[in-house]
Amino acid sequence: MYTIDKADSRGGVREYETPRRHTVPTCAGAHGIPDTLGERPFVLLEYEKPPTVNYTLSDPCVTEKPPPKMAPSPIEMPMLERTRLILVGGFLGAGKTTLLRRAAEKLMASGRRVALLANDQAEGLVDTSLLRETGADVDEVGGGCFCCRFPQMMEAVERLMRRSRPEIIIAEPVGSCTDLAATVIRPIRKMFGEQIEVAPLSVLIDVHQMRIMQDLGREFDKRISRLPDSVLHIYRTQLEEADVVVLNKCDLVSSDDLVALEASLADLLGDRPRFAISAEAGTGVDDWLEAIASGETESRTARVDYDVYAEGEAAMGWLNANGTVKAQADVDWTDFMQRLVRQIQADIAAAGGVVQHLKCFLTVPRKGHVAGNCIDNTRPPVIRGNLEPSVRKANLLVNARVLIASETLRRVVVDAVERVGADTAVETRLNVVRSFHPDRPEPVHRMLDS
Ligand SMILES: Nc1nc2c(ncn2[C@@H]2O[C@H](COP(=O)(O)OP(=O)(O)O)[C@@H](O)[C@H]2O)c(=O)[nH]1
Ligand SMILES: [Mg+2]
């Protein structure tokens, strides 16, 4: 049980119930900031009484954006006194980033100030680049999930609040992360409740992932899903703590299939609010936004077994790489991206891996981008965006989350990038390649009581 008393806030030793029970000394002063933050300023983390953040137009840190020229609001949302934090969880590839983009566009078109927060186990995120294209202010927490990097998350929230004074911040936790209610939502409500209001927790599951859950419900042969039980534990606990469940990619199934999938969701979740949407097409997104526009999260505690959760995360090889591509002549960059994603996907399958999410991104600042995505070993990649054939140099990002050994993943990606370069007469260079297995989740806080 988490307790906080006056002795804590005067710099004593606070005990947290974390997966591996340990004590966290609040030696960085009354703020409880882990030593790793050193002397860096951190305004929001006041435990006893969070300071009221009064931003004025004369505040030199505030960049006042011109009011958006927008159509009248189609989204019904009350005026907000506190910054509203909308967390959108869900497994890798469920469509969180796509939904964040869509939601930000809609809210900004309604005249709302919106900021977005991405999160990953390492830096160099495709998602951050994609989110920036909405025109919203974007920040990123790298190097670990929100729960294990809670102070960094709140630093990023503060940066966003100072930079663009958002009414709404939409945040996307790492797709393999669960137990958000206990490790992120309750700590925020407890420590920053005066400034931040946490919306009902939305958890996305796409129609393919829902089929896996549906089949498991029918005691279907688990091997078909090719997912270890530890990974399915993450799927289950993510849904368990959801206030609102969003079934995404409904454009990919027939209306009969959709009825069946929704019925399975109802079996799993009882009468919890559910939405069937297509984040890509925008269908159903307004209804979801209106539903989470008011009210606060119930913060339900999921029954997370940290040993199994850690095993599920560690089953995944994680790779973030960045580099450049250069061409001497015109190149069809969409075709290049198609080949690149297909090659990596095929090589991963040949090496015995199972793709959870593979994202590649080619970008030329202010000129455009091409993004390639695939979420399993077999479905063809989805390619979006455009780069003119005359582009001679672009930046390349590769993010891969795969059930495979991280060293194998590294070799596969490096070789595939080189091979596709050679086949297309494009000079490819990877400057930084980080590949690893996520560490055991060690949340900074874990509050099991509402
Ligand atoms: N058909 C379809 N594809 C979608 C939809 N939403 C997302 N996607 C695709 O699913 C893939 C993963 O999406 P992304 O937003 O990156 O997932 P995340 O890992 O949860 O952030 C991408 O190829 C998206 O284009 C949708 O509503 N319909
Ligand atoms: Mg994402």
Q: What is this structure, in a nutshell?
A:
The chain has 450 residues and is an alpha/beta fold. It contains 13 helices and 16 strands. Guanosine-5'-diphosphate binds at residues 90, 92-98, 175, 248-249, 251-252, 278-280, 357, 373, 375, 382.
Describe this structure in words.
The chain has 450 residues and is α/β, with parallel strands linked by helices. The protein folds into three domains: 40 residues, no CATH class; 263 residues, 3-Layer(aba) Sandwich (Rossmann fold); 120 residues, Alpha-Beta Plaits. The protein is built from 13 helices and 16 strands. Strands 3, 4, 5, 6, 7, 8, 9 and 10 form an eight-stranded parallel beta sheet that branches. The termini are close together. 46% of the residues are buried. The site of guanosine-5'-diphosphate (GDP) has 20 residues, from helix 2.
* Overall number of strands: 16
Query: First CA to last CA: what distance?
Result: 11 Å
Instruction: Tell me the radius of gyration.
Output: 22 Å
Low-confidence stretches: 1-74
CATH 2nd-level architecture of the largest domain: 3-Layer(aba) Sandwich
So what's the oligomer here? single chain
- Mind summarizing the main beta sheet? 8 strands, parallel
CATH topology of the largest domain: Rossmann fold
Instruction: Note the run of SSEs as H and E.
Output: HEEEHEHEHEHEEHHHEHEHHEHEEEEHE
Mean pLDDT: 83
- The structural class is alpha/beta
Q: What is the CATH H-level superfamily of the largest domain?
A: P-loop containing nucleotide triphosphate hydrolases
Shape: globular
Write the layout of secondary structure elements.
Layout: H1 6-9, E1 13-16, E2 22-25, E3 83-90, H2 96-109, E4 114-119, H3 126-132, E5 137-141, H4 150-164, E6 168-171, H5 180-192, E7 196-198, E8 202-206, H6 207-217, H7 222-225, H8 229-240, E9 244-248, H9 255-269, E10 274-276, H10 285-291, H11 306-314, E11 316-327, H12 333-350, E12 354-364, E13 368-374, E14 382-386, E15 393-403, H13 406-424, E16 426-436
Parallel strand pairs: 3-6, 3-7, 3-8, 4-5, 4-6, 8-9, 9-10
Antiparallel strand pairs: 1-2, 11-15, 11-16, 12-13, 12-15, 13-14
Helix pairs in contact: 6-9, 8-11, 12-13
The structure holds guanosine-5'-diphosphate and magnesium ion (MG).
